[in-house]
Amino acid sequence: MEHVGEIEKRLWSVRERIKAPNGTESNLLLRSLQRALYKDETSRSVLELSTGPLFGGEQEEKDLASGTIYVLRSKSSHPVVAENREVLHKIGVTGGSVEKRIANAAKDVTYLLADAEVVATYELFNINRKKFEQLMHRVFEPARLQIDIKDRFGNPVEPREWLLVPLFVIDEAIEKFKDGTVGEYLYSPDAARLVQTNNTYRR
Questions:
Q1: pLDDT, tens digit, 9 for 90 and up, residues 12-63
Q2: Is residue 114 classed as helix, strand or coil in its secondary structure?
Q3: Tens digits of per-residue pLDDT, 138-166?
C-alpha cells in the first residue's frame, strides 16, 4: 500500500512534453511547469479539449466589424407613397457605402422602383445584421406598408420592408437597440410611439 506522501511525490515527478510554437521541444517536471505558469500573468492552461481556442478566430455569419444603419425615404410618385411620404421609411444596415447600396434603387423593387433619399444614418460596431433586421421587423410589424406595385416586367409585387413610422420613433428604436432594450417594445400606430410589452425579445 502506497502512502499519501509517496503518491504525491510521484505526481510531482510527472514530466510534461512541451512543444513551443517555433517547433522546439522540452521535457519539464509538472511542478516546474506549474511554477512557471503561476509566475507568468499572461499564461493560460486549457483544462478540457471542449473549451476551444483562447481567442475566437471566426466571425458569425452576417456579423460586421462595423456598420451603418440607414433610414430611407422614397421619391416614388406612387399615390400611396406620395400621400405618406413624410412618415414612410425603410430601415437597413450595410458594411459599405450607403450611397453605393442605393445607387440602383430605381431599378430595384425593394426600393419601390424609385430613387431614395437618405434621411438618417447611425454608425455602430459589432452589428449582427440578421438579428438587427429581425428585431426591427418585429418592433415595427404593425406599421408595415401594404402596397402592390408592378416590377419592370409588369408582374405585381408587394415590397414588405417599408414602414409607416415617424423618423423620431425610428431614432428612439435605434437608441434602444444600442442599449439592448428594443426587444421590450412594439410600435403602436394609434399612439404613434413605442409601447412596452410583456414579451421580451432581446438582441
A1: 444 545 545 555 555 555 455 555 555 555 555 544 433 333 323 344 555 5
A2: coil
A3: 999 999 998 988 887 888 888 889 999 99
- Taking the C-alpha atoms of residue 195 and residue 187, their distance in angstroms, rounded to an integer, is 6
Question: How many CA atoms within 13 Å lie on the side-chain side of 182?
Answer: 23
Report if residue 168 sits inside a domain: yes
Together in a domain, 70 and 168: yes
Cα separation, 149 vs 114, whole angstroms: 11
Q: What is d(CA 67, CA 89) in angstroms, rounded to the nearest whole number?
A: 19
The answer on 131 and 43 residing in a single domain is: no
Residue span of the structural domain in which 108 resides: 64-196
Q: Are 108 and 145 in contact (CB under 8 A)?
A: no
Per-residue CA distances from 19 to 31, 44, 196 (Å): 17, 15, 57
Q: Give the SS3 label for residue 166.
A: coil
Coil/strand/helix, residue 90: strand
Joined together, the cell numbers standing for residue 99 give: 450611397
> Which among 138, 119, 121 has a CA at the least distance from the CA of 66?
121
- Distance in Å from the first CA to the final CA of the chain: 59
Is the same domain home to 77 and 168? yes
The count of structural domains within the chain is 2
| 111 in the same domain as 26 | no
pTM for this model (two decimals): 0.65
Closest of 155, 68, 143, 144 to residue 113, by C-alpha? 155
Q: Is there a single domain that holds both residue 21 and residue 75?
A: no
